Model the fold of this input.
Amino acid sequence: MLEWLSDFIQTVLAGTLWPLHELLNDGGSRYFWLYCLTGIMMAYIVTDQGKRLHSGEKWLFSPDVWWGPSAKADYFVLVFGSVLRLTILSWAFLNWKAIAAAVVSALEWLGVTGTVTGSAAVSLGALMTLTLFLADDFMRWWLHYKMHTIPELWEFHKVHHSAEELNFATAERIHPFEVVLTSLLIGLTFGVVNGLFIGLFGDTLTPITVFGANVFLVVFNIFGGVLRHSPTWISFGPKIERWVISPAMHQIHHSSDPRHYDRNMGGSLSVWDRWFGTIHIPNGREIESFGIGEETKDFRSLGVLYFRPFVKSAELLGARLARFKEQRKSRRPAEA
Done:
């Protein structure tokens, strides 16, 4: 018992420090030090050496952005989320290698095998890298879309949208239930894509990575990735924003204005939003505030952030089931 308790305490401490590890060492983290550095440099240049662009516009380092109540909630969710992922939620993170191995075995059973070497392996490795990036970006968009359009899931995603100020840590202001859904979906996607490439072309293929992350993801994050969750308005212009999510486009996504709701749900690419009709390319600065309207104030309590989504989602699901039962009852006489 004492040994278990000691291990648990060490894991909790490791989880508490994990955000620092991601900041310093994890190129896959949205607040990796390099992305923070390049984002600050972009903000510094665009905002005329730290001055506000317009009267009343907040600067990147305005006190409310980093030390206000909304920011403090961001930090708590960031650290507590890391602890949960290493303890209670550790089961929810799929081993993509096991999934890849299952895909390879299935292909071998079908008689499909292959091995490539030399320049072909290099080219296919680049294709594998691009495919992983595109598959990951699309599946994140798809889940994000579902989190907005399915009422029971939206109750959990409201936690992210309840932020009244945006800073780099807001990217991780995510309810644990959404973390679980995302990890399961992305783990499955990563395993399937890797398994297909390994099964078709051999296990010598390796994706191109920088700082341990997909090179395409690194490039997108270097050019203002962290500024998507910030008050710094940077638009790439309509021609580029047809393809790429700019900081301004994601800030539109967080806008409290109802006309911006359910828009710009892409992570790196905006093509999914364009293809499925959810894109909103801004015409100048259109944002007055962030949040989800009147409901925003209800999410200023940590208890509400973590527990209200379960209650509200259960109520919605119960009502949905009740309507389904009523519909079945109403159809029975006609069927008879």
